[in-house]
Amino acid sequence: MQHLRELYRQKNFQQLIEELNGLHEADLAEYFKELDGDERIILFRFLKKDLAARVFSYMEKEEQMGLINAITDHSLRDLLAGLAFDDKIDLLEEMPANVAKKILQNVSGDERKIINQFLKFPENSAGSIMTIEYVDLKEHYTVGYALDHIRKTGVNKETIYTCYVIDGNRRLRGTVSLKDIIMADPDITVGELMEEKTISVQTTDDQEEVAALFKKYDLLSVPVLDHENRLIGIITIDDIIDVIEEEGTEDFYRMAAMEATEDDYLSTGVFTLAKKRILWLMVLMVSATITGNIIGHFQAVLHSALSLTVFIPMLMGTGGNAGAQSSTLIIRGMAVGELKRRDALRVLFKELRVSLVVGAALGIVNYARIILFAGESTTVALTVSITVFLTIVLAKLTGSILPIVAKSIGLDPALIAAPLLTTIIDALALLVYFNIALMVLGPSLTAG
Amino acid sequence: MQHLRELYRQKNFQQLIEELNGLHEADLAEYFKELDGDERIILFRFLKKDLAARVFSYMEKEEQMGLINAITDHSLRDLLAGLAFDDKIDLLEEMPANVAKKILQNVSGDERKIINQFLKFPENSAGSIMTIEYVDLKEHYTVGYALDHIRKTGVNKETIYTCYVIDGNRRLRGTVSLKDIIMADPDITVGELMEEKTISVQTTDDQEEVAALFKKYDLLSVPVLDHENRLIGIITIDDIIDVIEEEGTEDFYRMAAMEATEDDYLSTGVFTLAKKRILWLMVLMVSATITGNIIGHFQAVLHSALSLTVFIPMLMGTGGNAGAQSSTLIIRGMAVGELKRRDALRVLFKELRVSLVVGAALGIVNYARIILFAGESTTVALTVSITVFLTIVLAKLTGSILPIVAKSIGLDPALIAAPLLTTIIDALALLVYFNIALMVLGPSLTAG
């Protein structure tokens, strides 16, 4: 790409135009990202119409906005004509009102009407990610006629590999793949060839559920129906890959006690980012009062055996880690559909057994470590090691139960797990610790 | 599905066979999972050959093993004939040696030879997820001849929507979509129609990099070449969706300090699961010695002002959470390709500013909380609140720098972040706390 900069600096525009138009749209979009606004606009004008539209659909919100503001209405009309319908909807959803207005002024009245209907679908619904670019056929068409029909109308359709068979009221009757059409005898009808058992979704379905269907049935596209089962759009797999990634990111964020941002990290403001993080940190900070109170309550114990304080961070840390392992495993298992609610008891029993093994191993290593390296008495070592064992068992059970309970009462397991889990485990670890200390060290504590 | 159980109990097999063969393979596989081994084998025999093979490819390892052991060589041959080539490879990779042997005995000698070559590709490489079922064309074919060729050879090919154009040495010359073939004049040649700028991968490329290409270029399939650029397979998008999910799961696990398991959770043994978790917990437990030592070192301070102990869990927790937010954001941003290494300085500067806002907000709330509810002196409140502020700033910077450094020295950021981060932040939080305490409370500590 250094080479392209060189051509631009030398004002060798003819060569530059040729080379730009020979690149892939994804690579061009990446290159354009590096340029300053003016150079980007100049180079963008050098692209052929259809390539320009494809590059545009790969760009970030800010770059798109800059271009729309810089080009004439005429160029904007060309650009919009080259965009896929769902990309137009995405664009309108992201642009501020004045830019959106400029866009809507440059589409035909018919299209504006459909666009306005599509903009009404709730965020993250099937309706909000579908496109209207598909091929529809009628049952009475012969295969030969259908193929001609596809040839005539299919050029600009986002996918022509699955065709949708509808009746006179646009109700979905079935689907037929292009593969079956080209393999079939040209004289049989589409009705004879089509697959009637069709998997479809409703406009109001959540995009996460739609993604689950794609995974379950290995789909390349799915028809979207309205409440009267009329076909109004399709969702294609490239958009589903984005959904899968978005939902994954949302879970990552929530498990790290943050709200997800819609925008790209680098283009989100400092205060917006801070706002997404403060609430949970605040909740966690205040809920740590509980652990503080437990320590306050047992201060007499600590005062008699101050060396016990040394092990508090390790115990809370180990408990937190052990619990996070279980909760992560179960939250992710549920998210990808590997674990169903009916598996709950088997999961709990398995985590219990795993926690016994892990707890015993860590308890023993910890005992040895304290005796050999920390120079503490066997009673202190015993107190700490029993606590390690019990904390791990309790932490893993809490970590397993919490997401399952959250899911069964309709809460997002990822959202609830991080904040609640740490607080609960910290409190449990300390309660176990001080009570074991009183039991094991009891005599020496009163003596001290 | 209750209905199917009823038919089975009534031994109404004719009706049962009809209904079973009318279901989608994914739903059948889900139903079969619920059955015990014997009933599963009986019902499986009721399925038509091609449906049986499709259901089989959806099953879990254990179920597949049970079926292979139960059926005759003849049925196994039918089953294998119906499986896609990449599903056969997956199956062989998962089965124990004796079952794999039974499978290899029931494929043709030619296929066995190819299978053995494919089994040699390293795990997680492009070679290990590709299939040999694609359509290849020659440049001199006319479009009409190409379409006939697809009709003749394409029926069992996994995807026929992208055809691969090769020369006499099987070197890839370009690709042509079925869409372009059916739209084109039947008399022009494939060479004139094909797209020469083809994105391809090598057999040894990592599957994660391949997935990144699919996302970047919105691909449905990609050709896989050997070191001499000969076409030897293709990778299709359905397998890439699995890769994206697998890689996401791996990151989730690593960030929760676990190794990923290849198998399904429920079918993995307790000791295997325990082994995947013990190592990191052990490392974290032992590294917590550092924080223990810091507390030990400053025990005189705690002895003079024991109420400081009460705030240790809150400080460590808040630091850990603030750091995890930053590291999660950056690890995920790098994993999905949103953040590149060249963005490192911008990210650090942004996280610094966010941390100042978040730290100040939490510090102030914390000061008010301690004064109003904890009944501590203003000097204690000041000590704790300054520590909250500084800990958050340090935690967020550490959380941002660590993944970037890990990536730049070739380590997996997800793997390194969780264990190291908590230990570092805990130590930093305590060092800040005790030093601030000595400064702010210094006079009263010596007095006390």
Fold blueprint:
2 copies of one chain form a homodimer.
Chain A: H1 2-9, H2 13-20, H3 25-34, H4 37-45, H5 49-58, H6 61-70, H7 73-82, H8 85-94, H9 97-105, H10 109-118, H11 126-129, E1 136-137, H12 143-153, E2 162-166, E3 172-177, H13 178-183, H14 190-193, E4 201-202, H15 207-217, E5 221-225, E6 231-236, H16 237-255, H17 270-297, H18 299-304, H19 312-335, H20 344-374, H21 378-408, H22 413-447
Parallel strand pairs in A: 1-2, 4-5
Antiparallel strand pairs in A: 2-3, 5-6
Structure report:
Two copies of one chain form a homodimer. By secondary structure, chain A is mainly alpha-helical. Chain A has three domains: about 1-120, MgtE N-terminal fold; about 135-235, CBS-domain (Roll); about 265-445, Tetracycline Repressor, domain 2 (Orthogonal Bundle), CATH 1.10.357.20. Helices cover about 70% and strands about 5% of the residues of chain A. Chain A contains 22 helices and six strands. In chain A, the strands form two sheets. A three-stranded mixed β-sheet of chain A has the order 1-2-3. In chain A, a hairpin with a 5-residue loop joins strand 5 (about 220-225) and strand 6 (about 230-235).
